[in-house]
Design a protein that fits this description.
Blueprint: H1 3-11, H2 26-36, E1 48-53, H3 56-65, H4 70-74, E2 77-84, H5 85-92, H6 95-117, E3 121-125, H7 130-137, E4 143-152
Antiparallel strand pairs: 1-2, 2-4, 3-4
Helix pairs in contact: 2-6, 3-7, 5-6
Bound molecules: flavin mononucleotide.
């Protein structure tokens, strides 16, 4: 892939919130997870884990925990991306909390882009009640759910969103 293909790949991704019923195949899931496992992480400790949710009742429970957002219930696959505090804090102490969240966020981004590479659609979902998700999935205390990544085959072409001018983000040398 050359740089213009890479930039086209990125700009053609957009969040999709309507999916068909077709399941994400085991082979696609395997591909997506293998891609995530290439993500960088603090100290190479990979302080992230995922819970794969395909069962409809559980997806509907997750939807409720996500303030009723229907794409969570509709997506054939929801990947609950988690930070694993113990894996990181055992080495980095308090700083490990931040590193675990960063590790999980990067791994989640890889999952999202890997889904895009397989012509699947997704929606990163951050608005949910953490305690409800922890309880329903039996997450141990040191596991923090960071995002619900809804994945499926979109029923509509994604609509691309606008971005701020890059210059608005950039500060040279000092703020
Ligand atoms: C941290 C984060 C939290 C988000 N939470 C939600 C959410 O709860 N519900 C939702 O529908 N989309 C959510 N999104 C998706 C954003 O709305 C979307 O990425 C943004 O509008 C840009 O659109 P695009 O993904 O189509 O490029 C979230 C994205 C991020 C990165």
């Amino acid at each position: 892939m050359d740089f213009s293909e890479f930039s086209g790949f990125l700009t053609n991704r957009a969040s999709v919130r309507e999916y068909g019923k077709e399941p994400v195949t085991d082979e696609e899931i395997r591909f997506i997870l293998d891609c995530a496992s290439t993500a960088p992480s603090a100290g190479n400790l990979e302080a992230w884990d995922v819970v794969l949710v395909t069962d409809e009742d559980t997806r509907l429970e997750l939807q409720e925990a996500a303030f009723g957002q229907e794409h969570i219930g509709k997506a054939p696959l929801v990947i609950v991306v988690c930070a694993n505090y113990i894996r990181s804090m055992a080495h980095y102490g308090e700083r490990g909390i931040l590193y675990a969240v960063q590790d999980a966020t990067i791994a989640g981004t890889y999952l999202m882009l890997a889904a895009h590479a397989r012509n699947l659609h997704s929606c990163w979902t951050g608005a949910f009640v953490e305690e409800d998700v922890k309880k329903m999935l039996g997450l141990p205390q040191h596991i923090r759910p960071v995002a619900l990544l809804a994945i499926g085959k979109g029923t509509m072409p994604p609509s691309l969103t606008e971005r701020m001018a890059v210059a608005e983000h950039v500060h040279y040398g000092q703020w």
